[in-house]
Amino acid sequence: MTRISTDILISGGGVAGLTAAALFGTEGYSVICVDPAPPVTEETAEGADLRSTAFLQPSLAVLKAAGLWDRLAPFATDLQVMRIVDAGGKIPSPRITRDFNATDVSDLPFGWNLPNWLLRREMVRRLEGLPNVDFRPGTATAAVLTRDTEALVDLSDGTKVSAQLLIGADGRNSPVRESLGIGVRTMRYGQKALAFAVTHPEPHGNVSTEIHRSGGPFTLVPLPDRDGRPCSAIVWMERGPEVLRLAALPEAEFNAEMTARSGAIYGPLRLETRRTVWPIISQVAHRMSGERTALIAEAAHVMPPIGAQGLNMSLADLRVLLDLCRAAPNRIGEEPMLDLYHRRRHPEVLARVTGIDILNRASMQSAQPLRDLRAAGVASLYALKPVRRTLMRLGMGARG
């Protein structure tokens, strides 16, 4: 069979892979994007990703460059305040609440929140309008062979592709990464996360709230109203067996338990979607590039969903890749470019994964003295205005 040529082949059609396809397609490159599973683009469909993504300020430039922001903006909910609540006292009610307001550092909100299933829907529609992008859902990367001049990729539909640049966006168990022999360092916590959406009687006021007690944070992120009621996306992290117990509870019992865990800050919570369960790990690839290949997103780095860092780091990967491609558009995928990509991204990835790892372990603590120490730390950092502002800028993606 004749081998077809493309500038870029993207292995992985999740949110990061679809963004990459839109970004480089908009830039004028010929792109093939493949994923073994067709994207689920309806909230009620089986397999829908019921998590949400908070795009922080630095990600806005990538979404605009990809021609995506105008499609996404009508569905986005502003995140004006990041609220940290410690409920680690003897009873599970808020004892310390600290608000980090975007007005202290910016004229814009911290970010904008959207459901993941909706992101896939709008991103697929964007790709349909790009004639130089060939999106092949239901097609997997079957084999990878790289050499100095090209990446040779065999697809599960029988297509053979020659690409100048191969982008591995194919998840934490990345076949592309494994084909290149790039190892990973993995940290396990014995945690899982429940992701779902709820309604509540009190408005969220564009406040994203992380409530810390033990087992991991309970995070409420604003969504648009649902049937006239305020709505939030929730990620509830806990020890694995506890998450499985919660996932199996009858709905009325589950509503009562999650309302108690939230400290009832918005009143009684009512489940509005299915409950989905996700494993929690931290993982970093030893390298973010190989011959003719760049690793992005969870193929390169995985972390617990704290501080909205995960997908924003993936878009930071794409921002650096795009800058390097623009600097030498006729030399994409060559060794100097990919070495520079690794050097620019890997140290920052290591630092952020390490920081989130520390925060997650602190949030998991169940011993009362350690919970008290955590609460005192939050209060002390917040009290120092220069430190508070620095933490907000770092949280939004500024480099330290």
Explain how this protein is built.
The protein has 400 residues and is α+β, with helices and mostly antiparallel strands. Helix content is 34%, strand content 32%. It contains 11 helices and 20 strands. The strands form 3 sheets. Strands 5, 6, 12, 13, 14, 15, 16, 17 and 20 form a 9-stranded mixed beta sheet that branches. Strands 1, 2, 8, 9, 10, 11, 18 and 19 form an 8-stranded mixed beta sheet that branches. A 3-stranded antiparallel beta sheet has the order 3-7-4. α1 runs parallel beside α4, α2 crosses α8 and α8 packs antiparallel against α9. The termini are far apart. 44% of the residues are buried. The model has no long low-confidence stretch (mean pLDDT 90). InterPro entries: FAD-bd (IPR002938), FAD/NAD-bd_sf (IPR036188), UbiH/COQ6 (IPR010971), UbiH/COQ6_monooxygenase (IPR051205). Keywords: FAD, Flavoprotein, Monooxygenase, Oxidoreductase. This is 2-octaprenyl-6-methoxyphenyl hydroxylase. Belongs to the UbiH/COQ6 family. Its cofactor is FAD.
Please name the defining characteristics of this protein.
alpha+beta, globular, FAD-bd, 34% helix, monooxygenase, 2-octaprenyl-6-methoxyphenyl hydroxylase, 9-stranded mixed β-sheet, FAD
Strand content: 25-35%
Which spans have pLDDT < 50 for at least 5 consecutive residues? none
Number of helices: 11
Helix percentage: 25-40%
Distance between the termini: 50 Å
The whole-number mean of residue pLDDT values reads 90
What gross morphology would you assign? globular
Rg, Cα atoms, Å: 21 Å
The count of DSSP E runs of length 2 or more, i.e. the number of strands, is 20
